[in-house]
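[Help] Beginner question about ligand-bound structures

Sorry if this is basic. My supervisor gave me a protein sequence and a SMILES string for zinc ion and asked me to "get the holo structure". I don't really know what that means in practice or what format the answer should be in. Inputs are pasted below exactly as I got them.
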Amino acid sequence: MSSYYDDHSLEDPFKARQSNNRSLNPDLSHFMPNEDDEISSSSNRLPPGTTPRASDFRRLAEMFGAFREREEPLGDEAHQEFLDNLITQLMDEAGASGKHGPPPASKSFIRDLPFVAQKELKSDEACIICNENFHENEFKAGITKLPCKHFFDRDCIVPWLELHNNCPACRAEVPSDDPDWIKKKREAELAKYAAEAEIDEDWMYS
Ligand SMILES: [Zn+2]
Ligand SMILES: [Zn+2]
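Answer (accepted):
No worries, everyone starts somewhere. Holo just means with the ligand present. The predicted complex, written as structure tokens, is below.
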């Protein structure tokens, strides 16, 4: 049977893990920050202000691959396709060392992500990335939302934002510290003001 990974000539992260003599059940704790083990988990994460490396993109593709594997063969096809697209993007970015993708979200944006209480969420609301119902949430880091009002486990969205300044669901942009991104943003804003000023002038003198 040809899998999603064969079709896309990708290394199946789940198979790779099996061949490393890991258990058949995806062990998600491997990807999750461990409260008792701050030092080793933080060494697994990107130090602030560092350009992401190919291995950072690959590690996140592996985490999303484990979510996908967990819900097969049943599960939500639309959600699996959503994860497939994210995994493909991450593997492409790993190949290009992230050079062609969006820049990481800004450190202050990630730091100031809001905390959302479970009671604010509908009973069937699930994290867009892992598809786990928030009311059965086993992860301890809590729930957050992006300005586009999409909800996520913090454990799921923070590693994505450390690599991309957008929402993985609707692609709405969030701030970045990347100097090129800031420059482009400023130029686009100046162009917008210039265009508006021109319209005002046309109106005044017509
Ligand atoms: Zn999640
Ligand atoms: Zn969104």
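A couple of things worth pointing out: Residues 179-205 form the longest helix (27 residues). The longest strand covers residues 143-145. Feel free to follow up in the thread.
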